[in-house]
């Protein structure tokens, strides 16, 4: 069996196809091409393997994310190969076959997995068999219910959310030494070379001060922050849509401090990156979404995509479309993405992972006796910044509630009753959690904390924000604006 993933752009790059001109090819792709990233499984004779191909097409039509479809594909292809080796197939598989597959994945495979990873595999297998039941291929799932709505195929063991947050000193060391390329004493490290410290530090700050997930903050576009054509807002309410987890829309407050820290990157590094990327962008012009104008106060864009003029809501643009969105400025093509890398392209998750590991190695190399305690045993991940945001905001809101109740002299029992319910709901909404249980239970009846984000992090930005800004201003002044590190 062979596993492939659809990519319309690669088909276009092939060029001419016998019997089809460019217009006919575009019409064919527009009418029949599956969603980008849809898995396709072919046999050794290069024929579609069913029911997998039909299931994947349904997932694509349901707008499942490319990441989810890819993970599902690897799981079910592995399952099918396992069953074929046992003389079975998807339709004839029994509960014993699937339990043997589970045991093999956990204990005997070349690369074994843990129970949490198996539960993700079980979700993929369950989704496939639900499709097969709807199609009449099987009568029911080939495993029994374990009661209370739980299926015996999954592990069924509840796990606490692993929350790893940062103290202020740890965060400053990560931001300035790891991502920012400074020396441990907050001075300029003349020996630092290689990558974009202003961009990476700004991304770190944006992640912390907004609580956004990596797929959210890394795909932000300039017009969403009001940063096109010299715009300079103090604070922004960002409407997340297609890039939010599961596509659940929510509003994110981007405080002024997070916008301010973007300045060194926008003034020093980004113009240089975009200028160097012009040959690549021009060469890929046909594959890009070339925006000609913004409409509806920046909420929509109009431009040329796949040879036709289209209008798109920025909030509903998925990461794939955001990565190819550029604007014709007269001086060249300018990516709409806030954070860009080599070639003018929006960094992918793997690109940011390389940045993170480079920061981690730098932190370990610069940790002396005084700062050794600031480097944990395991590498920081970007999601730890989200956990830090949540805990800092909850602590701040709890302190506000305590002060309010002390002022009113409300009995502690009443305070505890109120604290069992609602800042959870407030912070849950800021973080976009699907369930209050994910955020945990804290307090009730507090005002909307959107405007309190600045106060929650006021001491943090005051403690470490000025030093780096002064260095950036010095660079712009002494080197005439061409002094990016790396």
TrEMBL record:
<protein>
    <submittedName>
        <fullName>Site-specific integrase</fullName>
    </submittedName>
</protein>
<keyword id="KW-0233">DNA recombination</keyword>
<dbReference type="InterPro" id="IPR010998">
    <property type="entry name" value="Integrase_recombinase_N"/>
</dbReference>
<dbReference type="InterPro" id="IPR011010">
    <property type="entry name" value="DNA_brk_join_enz"/>
</dbReference>
<keyword id="KW-0238">DNA-binding</keyword>
<dbReference type="Pfam" id="PF02899">
    <property type="entry name" value="Phage_int_SAM_1"/>
</dbReference>
<dbReference type="InterPro" id="IPR013762">
    <property type="entry name" value="Integrase-like_cat_sf"/>
</dbReference>
<feature type="domain" description="Integrase SAM-like N-terminal">
    <location>
        <begin position="54"/>
        <end position="136"/>
    </location>
</feature>
<dbReference type="InterPro" id="IPR004107">
    <property type="entry name" value="Integrase_SAM-like_N"/>
</dbReference>
């Amino acid at each position: 069996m062979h596993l492939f993933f659809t990519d319309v752009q690669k088909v276009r790059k092939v060029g001419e196809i016998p019997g089809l001109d460019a217009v006919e090819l575009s019409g064919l792709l527009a009418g029949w091409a599956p969603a980008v990233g849809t898995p396709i499984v072919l046999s050794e004779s290069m024929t579609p393997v069913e029911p997998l191909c039909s299931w994947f097409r349904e997932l694509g039509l349901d707008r499942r994310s490319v990441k989810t479809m890819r993970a599902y594909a690897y799981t079910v292809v592995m399952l099918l190969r396992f069953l074929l080796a046992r003389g079975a197939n998807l339709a004839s598989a029994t509960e014993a076959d699937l339990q043997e597959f589970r045991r093999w994945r956990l204990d005997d495979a070349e690369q074994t997995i843990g129970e949490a990873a198996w539960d993700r595999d079980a979700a993929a297998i369950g989704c496939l068999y639900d499709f097969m039941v709807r199609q009449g291929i099987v009568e029911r799932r080939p495993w029994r219910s374990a009661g209370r709505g739980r299926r015996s195929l999954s592990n069924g063991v509840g796990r606490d959310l692993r929350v790893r947050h940062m103290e202020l000193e740890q965060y400053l060391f990560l931001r300035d030494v790891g991502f920012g390329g400074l020396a441990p004493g907050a001075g300029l490290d003349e020996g630092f070379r290689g990558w974009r410290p202003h961009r990476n530090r700004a991304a770190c700050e944006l992640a912390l001060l907004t609580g956004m997930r990596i797929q959210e903050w890394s795909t932000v576009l300039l017009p969403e922050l009001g940063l096109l054509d010299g715009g300079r807002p103090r604070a922004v309410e960002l409407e997340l849509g297609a890039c939010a987890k599961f596509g659940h829309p929510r509003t994110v407050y981007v405080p002024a401090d997070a916008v301010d820290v973007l300045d060194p990157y926008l003034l020093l590094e980004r113009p240089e990156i975009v200028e160097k990327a012009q040959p690549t962008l021009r060469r890929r012009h046909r594959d890009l979404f070339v925006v000609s104008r913004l409409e509806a106060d920046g909420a929509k864009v109009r431009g040329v995509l796949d040879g036709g003029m289209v209008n798109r809501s920025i909030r509903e643009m998925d990461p794939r479309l955001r990565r190819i969105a550029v604007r014709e400025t007269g001086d060249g093509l300018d990516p709409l993405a806030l954070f860009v890398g080599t070639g003018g392209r929006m960094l992918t998750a793997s690109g940011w992972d390389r940045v993170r590991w480079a920061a981690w190695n730098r932190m370990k190399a610069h940790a002396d006796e005084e700062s050794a305690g600031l480097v944990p045993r395991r590498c920081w991940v970007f999601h730890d910044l989200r956990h830090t945001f949540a805990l800092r905001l909850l602590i701040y809101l709890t302190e506000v509630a305590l002060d309010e109740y002390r002022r009113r002299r409300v009995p502690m029992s009443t305070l505890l009753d109120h604290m069992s319910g609602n800042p959870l709901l407030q912070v849950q909404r800021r973080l976009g959690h699907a369930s209050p249980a994910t955020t945990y239970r804290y307090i009730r009846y507090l005002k909307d904390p959107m405007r309190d984000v600045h106060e929650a992090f006021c001491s943090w930005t005051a403690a470490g924000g000025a030093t780096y800004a002064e260095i950036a201003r010095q660079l712009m002044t002494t080197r005439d604006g061409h002094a990016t590190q790396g």
